[in-house]
Design brief:
6-stranded mixed β-sheet; 20 helices; about 20% strand; globular
Length: about 650
């Protein structure tokens, strides 16, 4: 059943035509991802579908029998409401019904006490109770708290005024309220902005179990791969439809554009050949050849003059250079901790952060929102002092910082002045050329920075960073406001950058391409994973499963835990002198260090074995090896032994 359809939709703002004759239909249960560059018209299309804007021409149909929920980039909360009040508004009819039921129950009680007939009132109460239960009246409070919790709102935040929420918190609250309304059609405009990885995974699971129809504007490629089955691409005001998720779309688009370019080149070559023949015939000057030339000109006039395929939309051109090379040891961080407040009001963000950074590494930092990732970077920059611990910089380290909030951009300056004031040695012509590489064309350079979109500000901040010549890049959510094409260019530039980078990111597609290792930030320090995002998830889940298994084993021990296994002589340090207690403590610390070294050795060995396993498996797929029985048998034997050793090491590693 078609629930949404559009026919020849056009939308113009003055002379600027944003949408040019867009047509499509959406079937019930479709999961559609809408992609395109910043300013392509994606949000405009959603606004037209929901009645928030009018098309210049064309027809729109949205099923009147189905409720539509729309998550906008800008919410419409009342600033004097609290978090819980915004959520409770959704269930106001149930609250009113509940109050009415309580009043009716009291009325029945009073009637019974007065000896009056309560049958009619009781029947009315039963009807209301059934309706209340059917609408979820007995479960809405727990459901509301569950969704708020999944959106990272704790109970002590329920009474927080909306006016005091950050941009990310407002986005999460908007999403929670939309999900609680349970519309049959949901339209989501950049729902993954400001969500940490844990919340993203929860949202994916929720949407995958959602039975309605979805249209999602998103630049999050990993998210699109896991939630949609059709892609609408808006480019140059036109709509192209692709079946499948983002990865399917990327492959199909590349094939389509390659075929279009081949056809264009072939037709262009034929036209050029015919024009050359006409020119030659005319040069000869004979009447016969002149007639032939005229005949070919008529043929050329009838031929379709092909337009060059749109190909790749204008892309930013990034290349990070370092002014000079740093030493091999870039950063040494030991025992870093940060707390805010004092005494009983003290709030600890993190403690025990240890990290060694070597030249050329690309280290990605992940962790829950609010854990202190941005604070950690600002400590490295020297903008915030740590509570304890220290940081040692290596030789010749020059730092550049990308702030996701773009607070280093002056909203009162023009784009041209913002760059010129930062790099005064460049001429205006050079500055404009550089801005052109970042898609600031013509009069765009005279726009005030405060009037730029999030994506435009991100491009300007990246350009400033590119020109800095830093050999250590500190990047805080660098892909947040970039469109997909810009993300891919940025990723390629970062991969080619010879220097070092520390990157905070929740972009899982990015995390599967860039990092040499991933550091998961927790309150008690970093958990290190040598690899990219999928490896990180696999190993983290394995560790969690191992801890759960060991916890179950511990739960089966005699009451009293470890102390229940002692010889019954009371507390282990009972009666010890200060010197004996000191020796015991030192012995315990030595044992802990030994265990930590053994654990690290096991992890290093696991990394070596897994790397060798990947090499063997790749070698076995080689055609020459596949035809060599003895070589194949040799590799199979080595692979089997390697897997057995890996299993033994993993079992030992889980004991830690």
């Amino acid at each position: 059943m078609i629930v949404i359809s559009a026919k020849d939709i056009k939308k113009s703002y003055g002379a600027d035509e944003v949408l040019r004759g867009i047509s499509f239909h959406v079937n019930e249960g479709d999961r559609i991802g809408i992609i395109g560059g910043n300013g392509a018209g994606k949000t405009t299309l959603l606004n037209i579908l929901t009645g928030g804007d009018e098309a210049s021409s064309g027809d729109i149909f949205v099923s009147a029998d189905l409720r539509v929920g729309y998550l906008r980039q800008q919410d419409d909360f009342r600033s004097d409401n609290t978090v819980i009040e915004e959520a409770e508004q959704i269930f106001r009819p149930l609250e009113e019904m509940e109050a009415e039921m309580l009043a009716l129950s009291q009325e029945i009680s009073d009637m019974a006490a007065a000896g009056e007939d309560t049958r009619a009132a009781s029947m009315r109460y039963d009807d209301m109770r059934v309706m209340f239960e059917r609408r979820g009246g007995y479960s809405y409070r727990s459901e509301m708290r569950g969704v708020l919790s999944s959106m990272a709102f704790t109970e002590d935040q329920y009474d927080k005024p909306v006016s005091e929420l950050s941009g990310g918190e407002r986005t999460r609250l908007s999403l929670a309220c939309l999900l609680l309304r349970k519309p049959e059609i949901i339209l989501l405009d950049e729902p993954t902005n400001h969500l940490d990885i844990g919340t993203l995974k929860w949202l994916e699971q929720y949407l995958n179990s959602y039975r309605g129809t979805m249209m999602i504007v998103s630049h999050d490629r990993y998210f699109l791969d896991r939630t949609v089955n059709r892609i609408f691409e808006i480019e140059n005001g036109k709509l192209e439809i692709y079946e499948g998720n983002y990865s399917d779309y990327a492959k199909l688009r590349a094939e389509k554009r390659e075929a279009e370019m081949r056809a264009y080149k072939k037709q262009s070559a034929e036209i050029a050949r015919q024009e050359d023949m006409v020119r030659r015939f005319r040069q000869r000057g004979t009447e016969k050849l002149a007639k032939r030339a005229r005949s070919r000109e008529i043929m050329l006039e009838k031929m379709d003059r092909p337009e060059r395929p749109a190909g790749e939309r204008g892309k930013i051109k990034i290349r990070f250079r370092e002014s000079y090379e740093s030493g091999k040891d870039v950063l040494h961080i030991e025992g870093l901790a940060k707390s805010f407040g004092y005494g009983p009001r003290e709030k600890r963000l993190f403690d025990g952060i240890d990290l060694d950074v070597r030249r050329g590494e690309k280290i990605c930092i992940v962790g829950a929102n609010g854990i202190g990732k941005t604070t950690f970077m600002r400590i490295i920059l020297g903008e915030i002092k740590p509570t304890k611990g220290y940081i040692r910089r290596g030789h010749n380290v020059k730092t550049g910082y990308y702030d996701q909030r773009q607070e280093d951009l002056d909203p009162s300056k023009t784009v041209l002045d913002e760059l010129h004031d930062a790099y005064a040695l460049y001429t205006d012509a050079e500055i404009r050329s550089l801005l052109g590489r970042f898609l600031f064309m013509g009069d765009d350079v005279f726009i005030k920075v405060g009037s730029l979109s999030g994506g435009e500000k991100a491009r300007l901040a990246l350009l400033k960073l590119m020109l800095s010549g830093a050999n250590l890049l500190l990047l805080d959510e660098p892909t947040n406001h970039l469109d997909i094409d810009s993300k891919e260019v940025f990723e390629d530039a970062l991969a080619e950058f010879p220097g070092t980078a520390l990157i905070i990111s929740h972009d899982r597609y990015f995390l599967n391409k860039i990092p040499t290792r991933i550091m998961e930030m927790t309150e008690s320090g970093f958990n290190e994973y040598l690899g990219k995002y999928d490896y990180f998830v696999e190993k983290r889940d394995a560790v969690a499963s191992g801890k759960k298994y060991l916890g179950e084993l511990a739960g089966s021990r005699p009451a009293g835990g470890d102390d229940a296994l002692t010889d019954g002589e009371g507390p282990r340090d009972g009666g010890m002198s200060n010197e004996e207690q000191w020796r015991a403590r030192k012995a315990k610390e030595t044992e802990e260090r030994r265990k930590k070294r053994e654990q690290e050795e096991l992890e290093n060995r696991i990394g070596e074995l897994e790397a060798r396993q990947a090499e063997i498996e790749a070698e076995m797929l080689d055609e020459s090896v596949m035809n060599d029985y003895h070589k194949l048998e040799e590799l199979s034997g080595e692979l089997e032994s390697l897997k057995e050793e890996l299993n033994r090491i993993y079992e030992k590693w889980l004991q830690y």
